Amino acid sequence: MVFSRRMAALAAVVVIPLGIAATSFALSDRPESPKVPPKVELDSGSPSSPASTPATPTPAPSDEVVSRPPVTDSSADDDDDDDGPGDDG
């Protein structure tokens, strides 16, 4: 079989990306696996609070119902009420 330009182009399309990928893989750094400490100690005890101020409990939120503000449709900068059909501005 004759090695034609079409075969050379096909080989280049396949071989060049594979060569780039292989070179990139060969030159890449391999990270070390993370090292786990042999023993982990947790602090046992209450969280530290300033000794000068006594701990005062915060009051619980109440279930107070707040009324809605009144709905107004006439603000000073609203000009929608004078727009009519065909009024482009």
Automatic annotation (TrEMBL):
Compositional bias of kind Acidic residues: 75-89
Region (Disordered): 25-89
Bias type Low complexity, positions: 46-55
Basic and acidic residues bias (residue ranges): 29-42
N-terminal signal peptide: 1-26
Protein keywords: Signal
The protein, known as: Small secreted hydrophilic protein
